[in-house]
Amino acid sequence: MATEDHNNGGTTSEVQKSKPKPITPSELRSEFSHHDPSIARINNGSFGCCPASIIAAQERHQLLFLSQPDYYFFNILKPSILRTRRLIQTLINADHVDEVSIVDNATTAAAIVLQHSTRSFFSSTFQRGDAALILHYAYGAVKKSVEAYISRAGGHVIEVHLPFPVKSSSEIVFEFEKALQMGKANGRKIRLAVIDHITSMPCVIIPVKELVKMCRDEGVERIFIDGAHAIGNVKVDVKDIGADFYTSNLHKWLFCPPSAAFLYCKMSDEVSDLHHPVVSHEYGNGLAIESSWIGTRDYSAQLVLPEVMEFVRRFEGGIEGIMKRNHEMVVEMAKMLAEAWGTELGAPPEMCASLAMVGMPACLGIQSDSDALKLRKHLREWFKVEVPIYYRAPVEGEVDPITGYARISHQVYNAVEDYHRLRDAVQKLVQDGFTCAHLSK
Predict the structure, then answer these.
(1) Is the C or the N end of the chain the one with fewer CB within 10 Å?
(2) Cβ burial, residue 235 (10 Å; 0-12/13-18/19+)
(3) Domain Aminotransferase class V, which positions (predicted)?
C-alpha cells in the first residue's frame, strides 16, 4: 500500500481546539432553514441532513475548482482528502491514516470488499461452494452486491434470520451462532461475514464486537462491518470491534453533504490487493490513493469534514452529546407514539440509536411491503409527514399481530411537534376507519 503520511500525531490538533461559541436555537433553525417547513421530517436515517454552513463550505470548494481546475487538482484536492482521512482516523481510532479511504457511500465500499472476495474465488484462494454469511436484514443494495459478486463467482450465501421484534441482543447472538454452524456443515468454509452495525429496516443495533469474536473463533477468514448508519449515531472504534473492513456514511448522521463515506481496511498483506471499482490513473497506488481520484467529478462532499467537526463542537458535548440527546429523544418519542397507538417498540431502548421502530395499529391493515409504501406516501401527501414504514409478516397463530412499524429518526433539527403530527395523523386514520385496502382503490 502506498504511504502518504506517517505522522499519526497530527490528527489531534484537527479536533482539539479552543471551544467555539455554543449554537443558539435561532442559529440552529437557520442552519436547517432550507428544509421544507411544511414537512414533519422524521426520516433522517434515509438521506441524512446538511447544515447551511456546511453547504456553503462545499460551494466554496466547488467554486475553487471551477475557477482554476488545474491549480485545484495539483495543490488542493489531495491534501484536502488527506485531511478528511486524518479526521476519520481519529474518530474511529484507526492505527494509521493509510487504513482509511474516502469513497462515495457504503455501497461503493461494499463493492470494493466484495470484488476482492470475488478475485479470491477466481484465483482459487477460495473454492466454489465456500460460503459468505450475511444478515437477512442487510441493506438491500448490499444483499444485491453479495448476489452479484459472491454468488456469481460460485460462492454459497447464508442468510442469518434474525427475530423481529427483538427483545435482547442475546437473541441475535443465538441466531448468528446457529447460522455459523450451519455454514460450516459438510466441511464448507465460511470465507466472509458481512455484518451490519445498525440494520436499516427494521432498525436494530447489532452486537458487532461479540459477533466478530464469534467469527474469529470459528475461523471466518474476512469480516466486513456495514456501519452505514453508524458514525455520528453510535461510537465507532474499529480496533475494539476487530473487523477487517468497516464502512460508514458521513452524510447520514455526521452532517456531510451527500455523498461521502469511508472504508477502513485493517493493515494486512491482503490490503494491497484492494482496488476501487473505477479504474483510473492512480490504479495500483493503494486503495486510499486510488479512491482520491477516480476521474473528473465533484469531490466537494468529501472535503468539508473539518467544517463539520467545527459545527458539531458548537453543541454541548460535541458529537457524543448529539448522539446521547438524539438517542434519548427518539426513545422518548417512540414510547409516546406506542402508548398513543396502543402498540410497542420493535426493540428495547438500548438497541436503538437515533432511530426506533414503533408498532402501528393493527387495524390499519398493513398486509404487504406494497401496503407499507402506499401508507407512507399517504402520510406524506395528506398529512405532510415523512416516515418509512416496515412490513412484518405475521407469524402463524398470532392474533391481531402488529404488521407495520414506523421507523422514526431524531436529529438536531427535529421538534416534538414533528412526532405529534405523526401521532395525530395515525390516530385520525384509525378514527376514520381507514385501512390500507382503501389505498388500492
Answers:
(1) C
(2) middle
(3) 83-375
Cis omega before residue 361 (within 30°)? no
Q: Which residues contact 123 (CB under 8 A, 6 or more apart)?
A: none
Q: Give domain status of residue 48, yes or no.
A: no
- pLDDT, one tens digit per residue, over 52-110 is 999 999 999 999 999 999 999 999 999 999 999 999 999 999 999 999 999 999 999 99
Look up the CATH number of the domain holding residue 187. 3.40.640.10
Same domain, yes or no: 322 and 304: no
Q: How many domains does the chain have?
A: 2
Residues 152 and 262 in one domain: yes
pTM value surpassing 0.90:
yes
Distance from C-alpha of 111 to C-alpha of 95, rounded to nearest angstrom: 24
Domain of residue 341, residue span: 318-440
132 and 271 part of one domain = yes
pLDDT in tens, 290-318: 999 999 999 999 999 999 999 999 999 99
Count of CB atoms within 10 A of residue 342's CB?
12
